[in-house]
Amino acid sequence: MDYLLGIDIGTSGTRGVLMDREGKIFARAGREYSIDIPQPGWAEQDPKMWWEATTQVIREVIKKSEVNPQQIRGIGLSGQMHGTVFLDKNLLPFRPVIIWADQRSSSQCESIYRKIGKERLAELTGSPIATGFMCSTLLWMKENQPEEFSQIYKVILAKDYIRYRLTGNLGAEVTDASSTLLLDIKRRCWSEELLDILRLPLDILPEEVHESQEVAGYLLAEAARDSGLIEGIPVVYGGGDQSMQAVGNGIIRPGILSSTIGTGGQLFITVDKFTYDPKLRIHTFCHAIPNTYHLLGAILSAGLSLKWLRENILHTPDAYQIFDEEVGKIKAGSEGIIFLPYLLGERSPYMNPQAKGVFFGLSLKHHRAHLIRAVMEGVVFALRDCLEVFEELGVKIERVIASGGGAKSRVWRQMQADIFNKEIFMTQSTEQAAMGAAILAGVGVEIYKDVKKGCKKIVKLKEEKIKPIPENVDIYRKQFKIYKSLYRDLKGDFKRLEGKAV
Questions:
Q1: Positions marked catalytic
Q2: How far apart are the first and last CA of the chain?
Q3: Measuring CA to CA, how many Å separate 297 from each of 101, 275, 332, 348?
Q4: Burial environment of residue 306 by CB neighbours within 10 A (0 to 12, 13 to 18, 19 or more)
Q5: For the chain, which ranges sit under pLDDT 50?
Q6: Three-class SS string for 34-92?
Q7: What's the confidence (pLDDT) of residue 342?
Q8: In whole angstroms, what is the distance from residue 5 CA to residue 235 CA?
Q9: Cis peptide bond N-terminal to 201, omega within 30
Q10: If phi over 0 gives left and psi between -120 and 50 gives alpha, with beta otherwise, what is residue 117?
Q11: pLDDT in tens, 324-351
């Protein structure tokens, strides 16, 4: 029997699944890790931690499944997007990775707009620049840590580092490369124009940019020893975690929207031609399917907001299932509390690193369950903010699929149904990003003819769907208007709070 292995190198942990060609999961495993915050607004991780987690996950998957590693036909990779791994001439990481959640490069983002112009940036990349992207991070390092910048031999992304450790391949692929803001997205190659304007050297990037399902290389002997696998297994390029979760959820044609609540939150929809928001409120990136793209609305603090509340405010070890039970007893709207989940600033649709988290409407009648519910609602309001941009661009939405860790919460799924005023579906697969990576591996080794055929065989919807509750829809419609006005009213105060002139 043939098996496929999918590995997802996420922000809060690495996940792995082992499935057969029919999509039956034989084992899954995960390892969690943390984000380092050396200064307020900074966010870093050690790439060696990713490698250790990856090898542990692979060994656990093999042990649980009792599958002979010789029967594993291919490996696919998914990974957190945007962050920068810095390699020296020995191809070793010489400093921590600056990940997507990092906020230090806000002035560089403003500089990029001045140098290139928003209109030309949109034409080339289809996307606004944000802190934590490789493009702005490199400029920050060049200006603030020139000695470290001079040590750079290559820069790569999270899952590309793991692929390098597995195969020795330093290449890049289109989905993650487009998230660096250094890619000419229509030509699907590095933008020499952008690099020249920003005075960034082309040779520090991987030489070629490939399609996601192409075979990148074969498992090295050392990697096989570390992981318990067999030398020579094909490894495909894989993709950024959002494209991979989309493949794992079957979101490969226009009309199907994924709503993901993980550490961050994302709305994702496929478009079959290059489409972008001229106001640069959301992103357009390459999809894992050749010659297709996707629109992405991304918020920075989704599940992270709930984790922050649990650990920093409530100081409780309670499982999230207990939160669900408590929140289920509170009416929609949290009796007047509205939460702005801008704990790391915000990306879509505001692109504002100065934005701050806010509880609005507190009174003596409120208790912990109200706060929990308000945080969960605030996350979905932030996603609704992105959804309005999609709709403004004329994107048709036939179906919404809930994804990520937040999809495990029935309460959170109901909130999405009520706040979006749309039915919410789920697929039968779990660990969708790792599943998507496994499907890509199957395409690369020719088990499936293409991504669409692989998804048709593997991805199935659950029978359960959640419908909007009309009473809740009405409550949330009114609260969402207040939510949006709060940001507008506080925007200047966010800047003043950081000592910046309005």
A1: 241
A2: 64
A3: 15, 14, 24, 5
A4: buried
A5: none
A6: CCECCCCCCCEECHHHHHHHHHHHHHHHHHHHCCCHHHEEEEEEEECCCCEEEECCCCC
A7: 97
A8: 9
A9: no
A10: left
A11: 999 999 999 999 999 999 998 999 999 9
